[in-house]
């Protein structure tokens, strides 16, 4: 017997009877695609540094071809420092923990500032059931795509006279068309079957009417994708009763915030839902649904913040950077930990710390 065949036989005899299924290579990189990429990292406030550190640990363990440029900014700053904006413009990609937004007063949201400054016009949140995590509804796999730059978030407010405040909702055909096009492109490229436009055009006939008109025009260019419309209040009712009917949802700014958080709560909670904000040139990846737990300092003191949402968001980031194999490894490891159920933070019914979940993910990496 040839000497070189002996190790092969030993491997075959020692392996289990169940063959290991490996994904075939379908991504052919261009020369240079594998060079390490710089990524701007904003740890943020509250639990942000805790969960972004979890991502750093996993990226290092996987030897992912990225490196971080870290900036310490906080939600109570008056504006995003120019060096942070320049870093994101240079690197094209940012990973961000939650930034707390002060209630009232004269400090505007740094999250909104970043989206406007970089024209990150599409917010995407993927809300889906994770195997092993019990929820009221099964077969939930909803992608909420939200217009990110105008609407109620335009920030055009002023006091007319003492005690009377006017807030302007701005809807433009340009922004409505491009978010509709992005939603249909996403559905087409990801083999999704239906796009639902969420609106309140029965009351806001001009503003939401313009949004609907834009969605209808774009829909005619994608005959293979089913298109329908739903009023936002009925949408919320349908989400909590039959969420499996929805596939891709496209919404104006405010409705998208509400719908995405509702869908996230149905599918397992904000702690496990990935998301990101993307424009033509730049992208910021962060926890998909509301980061209301950013200010929960009890989680920070006990070090029990859930890192799953940001880990899955970082997998989205790796895929965006054209590192699909690393993204698959990370997603598979996180889903395995959730499925096995031994390591879960309090929001998922467990008692694990953030680091214990991270260690479990590290152990589950192929």
TrEMBL record:
GO molecular function: isocitrate dehydrogenase (NAD+) activity; metal ion binding
Matching SMART domains: Iso_dh (SM01329)
Pfam families, per the entry: Iso_dh
GO biological process: isocitrate metabolic process; tricarboxylic acid cycle
Keyword Mitochondrion appears in the UniProt entry: yes
Localization in the cell: Mitochondrion
InterPro entries noted in UniProt: Isocitrate_DH_NAD, IsoPropMal-DH-like_dom
Alphabetized SUPFAM superfamilies for the sequence: Isocitrate/Isopropylmalate dehydrogenase-like
The Isopropylmalate dehydrogenase-like domain, residue ranges: 38-361
Keywords, comma-separated and alphabetical: Magnesium, Manganese, Metal-binding, Mitochondrion, NAD, Oxidoreductase, Transit peptide, Tricarboxylic acid cycle
Gene Ontology cellular component list: mitochondrion
Presence of keyword Phosphoprotein: no
Domain of life of the native organism: Eukaryota
Family (UniProt): Belongs to the isocitrate and isopropylmalate dehydrogenases family.
Biological function: Performs an essential role in the oxidative function of the citric acid cycle.
Protein name per the record: Isopropylmalate dehydrogenase-like domain-containing protein
The organism of origin for this protein: Dovyalis caffra
Source taxonomy: Eukaryota, Viridiplantae, Streptophyta, Embryophyta, Tracheophyta
């Amino acid at each position: 017997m040839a000497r070189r065949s002996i190790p092969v036989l030993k491997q075959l005899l020692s392996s289990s009877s169940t063959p290991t299924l490996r994904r075939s290579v379908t991504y052919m990189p261009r020369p240079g695609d594998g060079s390490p990429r710089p990524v701007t990292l904003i740890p943020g406030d509250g639990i942000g540094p805790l969960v972004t550190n979890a991502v750093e640990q996993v990226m290092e363990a996987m030897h992912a071809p990225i490196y971080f440029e870290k900036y310490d900014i906080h939600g109570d700053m008056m504006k995003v420092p120019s060096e942070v904006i320049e870093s994101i413009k240079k690197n094209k990609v940012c990973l961000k923990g939650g930034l707390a937004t002060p209630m009232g007063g004269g400090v505007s949201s740094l999250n909104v500032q970043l989206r406007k400054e970089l024209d990150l016009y599409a917010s995407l949140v993927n809300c889906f059931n994770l195997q092993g995590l019990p929820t009221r509804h099964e077969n939930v796999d909803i992608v909420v795509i939200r217009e990110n730059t105008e609407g109620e978030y335009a920030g055009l407010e002023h006091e007319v006279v003492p005690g009377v405040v006017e807030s302007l909702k701005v809807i433009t055909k340009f922004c409505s068309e491009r978010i509709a096009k992005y939603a249909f492109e996403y559905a087409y490229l990801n083999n999704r079957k239906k796009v639902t436009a969420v609106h309140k055009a029965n009351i806001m006939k001009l503003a939401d009417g313009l949004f609907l008109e834009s969605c209808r025009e774009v829909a005619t260019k994608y005959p293979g994708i089913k298109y329908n419309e739903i009023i936002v209040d009925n949408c919320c009712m349908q989400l909590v009763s039959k969420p499996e009917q929805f596939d891709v949802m496209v919404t104006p700014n405010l409705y998208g915030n509400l719908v995405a958080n509702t869908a996230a709560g149905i599918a397992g909670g904000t702690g496990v839902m990935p998301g990101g904000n993307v424009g033509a040139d730049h992208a910021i990846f962060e926890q998909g649904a509301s980061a209301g737990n950013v200010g929960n300092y009890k989680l920070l003191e006990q070090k029990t913040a859930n890192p799953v949402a940001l880990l899955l968001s970082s997998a989205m980031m790796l895929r965006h950077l054209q590192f699909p194999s690393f993204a698959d490894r990370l997603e598979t490891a996180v889903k395995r930990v959730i499925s096995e159920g031994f390591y879960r933070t309090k929001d998922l019914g467990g008692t694990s710390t953030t680091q214990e979940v991270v260690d479990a993910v590290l152990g589950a990496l192929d």
